[in-house]
Amino acid sequence: MTQRDDVLGRSVRAAAPYALVDRVRDVLAASHGARRVQLFLADYGFTVLTPYDPLPGKEQPLSLYNSPEGRAFGSQEPREQQVRHGDAVDHHLPVTVRGERIGILSIRLPGDRSTPEAVEDLAHVADLLGHEILVAERDTDAYQRARRVSRLTLAAEMQWQLLPGRACGAEEFAIGAQLEPAYAIHGDNFDWAADADQLTLAVTNGMGEGIQASLLSHLAVNALRNARRSGLDIAGQAALADQAIYEQHRGASHVSTLLMRFELATGRVEVVDAGSPQLWRRRGRTVERIPLEAQLPLGMFEESHYEAQEFHVLPGDRLFMLSDGVYDAVSPEGEPYGERALARAINSTGLLPAATVPRAVLRALAEFRKADTTDDALAVCLDWFGRPDADSPSAPPLLPSDAGPMPAAQD
Predict the structure, then answer these.
(1) Are the CB atoms for 300 and 256 separated by under 8 Å?
(2) CB of 155 closer than 8 Å to CB of 339
(3) Residue 120 neighbours by CB distance under 10 Å
(4) Which of 191, 234, 258, 339 could form a disulfide with 277 if both were Cys (CB 3.0 to 4.6 A apart)?
(5) Angle in degrees, 0-180, between the axes of helices 210-229 and 234-249, rounded to the nearest 10
(6) Spatial CA neighbour of 124 closest among 42, 11, 5
(7) pLDDT (tens digit, 9 = 90+) per residue, 11-37?
(8) At residue 405, does pLDDT exceed 60?
(9) Helix, strand, coil % over all residues of the chain, rounded to 5
(10) pLDDT band with cut points at 50, 70 and 90 for residue 374
(11) Which residues lie below 8 Å from residue 30, measured CB to CB, with a gap of 6+?
């Protein structure tokens, strides 16, 4: 770290949580002659970039797909835009933290100061700002408030607060996830945690609607976290969460869950299928549902017993965890999305990074459905890279053939 970087970091960290952009604006005006500094945040639905602390003139949200800022967000690469009627240049820098795409930092510099070295400095500032926003959100609502283009329902507020993020990246994997309807979600949820040896990923779907479904998911996710942090394996995690939900609801409510643990060194996967979420895999151009032994949803009966199955992922595999609001959705003609359209959507997103795939799949779902719906839809995408020295098999062992149908599609 250079002395200038250290001074910049200390200056931004010393700012009030809601005033980070003001501090960055002051610093860049002094160091680079910046004429304009604006932060745009991705909204909950991943459709627009909303301006934080709008400048005079009340800037409107920008398209995530048809604007220079949106294209920088999608490519995750800095983009330059010549300002009309002047010599200034706008630089659009992705604000991203460990795979989590937060937004875009747009900085206007004089033309003679828009050098490659300056762009490198600006990218460092955007990276620093992203980390500080995540810390600042502990103490201010300003950034979460700015992300909204409409009001969140109370159930949706509860669900978004429970999430770990919408993307995560490491050497061995990359994850992306999305919930819809983003501003009115109630029962679907996802969670993940990684350490040096393993990644645990859970998809949950609390039965019911509105706040009751959200409360049920909160109980399930926190019970699973409590068990995971206590060091239990995934079968033990499922059992503890099952007991917690049954004790509270006595079988009147339950939570469908897909719980997975990845061994980072080998690609070995343990999985507990306790309900409706399904697991799909894209290997090469082949898309198929991975058959799993169905076990009881969490909380349905007292002291249910859970067992983990095993399979392996290979470098290049892409896994999808999908709620029934995705694969069971139907077209106007009555065709379930999971029959053929889902495989087409998965293949069509093959070149996209994991962070953007779930939103693309859910957009394809909306077009397939051709009608608005209040049903929850959850999609989680995991790209597996593995480790260069991983000791994994050349082909995964097969799961039991009697675990259920496995529809497949291949281009």
Answers:
(1) no
(2) no
(3) 10
(4) 258
(5) 140
(6) 5
(7) 999 999 999 999 999 999 999 999 999
(8) no
(9) 35, 25, 40
(10) confident
(11) none
